[in-house]
Amino acid sequence: MSYIDYYKILEISNTASSADIKKAYRKLARKYHPDLHPNDKKAKSKFQQINEANDVLSNKEKRAKYDKYGNNWQHSENFEKAKSQQSNNSQYRKYSNSQAESNFSDFFESMYGGSAGRSRQAKYRGEDYNAEIHLNLIDVFKTHQKTLTVNGKNIRITIPAGIENGQTIKISGHGGMGVNGGPNGDLYIKFSIADDLKIKRLGDNLYLTIDLDMFIAVLGGEITIDTLTGKVKLKVAPETQNGAKIKLKGKGFPVYKNEGSFGDLFITYFIKIPTNITENQKTLFSELSHAMI
Fold it and tell me: Which domain holds residue 47?
């Protein structure tokens, strides 16, 4: 495997601070973002490299492993285990310096297909990967597929409707590669789901506040509102009070992994008082107020 210089990709030195890394990542991510280069494969590849480099260097633990082991940083725990094993073995067996070095060398050779020590190769499970996907509320209203790029490979996953903010799902076998025939690690994806500007979600239920014209509130009438499933017509009862609530059954959010089931939509009316009224209108309101006493 050729060496990938993450510092070079982000155009920074290996002594760069966390702030330097963050600044460099944002600058390059904006420059090579796929939205700005929709048909440029080189820009897409560069954007993927930038994300991969930032994922490693912005994490203190990953960066320390990368600085020590280079491209093999994902197998650092296996290397440390091997060192620890050899340290323990030395308490019971005596080796010359050359024999000890040869034994440890065998471990590295066995990791990467060397001929020495093949009969006693140790199998190690690959490292688990963690990723986070940022979505809007409407993005998880319907089950859909999404393609992720992990370690340069495209992985197509299915995102079920109704998945919760902060929920994590596991994609088996899509983590780091196993060593010496060991199983691959797993990929854990955490979902960060932002609320809609108007519609709030709580579990499977949705909550929406609607501005209601004062005259419709008093006299009653019909209004049309926007929901996640489209426009809905509502009948407003006469003398509707400010803060009044209604429930639209089954118009809420999809229930996770329960196709065809939905929560409810709760609507709160906020009555709008007219502003910038004329003197004539003020007179009419005054007359109306006296007539209602």
Answer: 6-120
State the Cα angle at 30 between 54 and 198, rounded to 5°: 100
- Helix intervals (H) in the chain: 6-9, 18-32, 41-57, 60-69, 76-89, 97-111, 214-219, 279-291
Name the residue with tokens 């506040």.
209
Query: pLDDT class for 217, splitting at 50, 70, 90?
Result: very high
Q: Same domain, yes or no, for 188 and 220?
A: no
What is the CB-side half-sphere exposure of residue 57 using CA atoms within 13 A?
28
Is 42 found in the same domain as 114? yes
Residues 257 and 167 in one domain: no
Helix axes 18-32, 41-57, angle to 10 degrees: 160
Whether 104 contacts 86, CB under 8 Å = yes
What pLDDT shows up at residue 115? 45
- 21: pLDDT confidence band, cut at 50, 70 and 90? very high
Indicate whether 93 and 12 sit together in one domain.
yes
Q: Is the pTM of this model over 0.70?
A: no
Q: Are 218 and 239 a contacting pair, CB within 8 Å?
A: yes
Strand partners, 213: 272
Q: Give per-residue pLDDT as tens, 101-125.
A: 444 444 444 444 444 444 456 788 8
- Mean pLDDT for the chain overall: 82
Q: Which of 194, 225, 245 is the last residue of a domain?
A: 194
State in Å, rounded, how far the first CA of the chain is from the last one.
87
Q: In what order do the strands lie in the sheet with 129-136?
A: 129-136, 187-194, 168-171
Residue with tokens 């079920």: 160
Which of the listed ranges 37-51, 146-160, 248-262 does the model predict with the highest average pLDDT?
A: 248-262
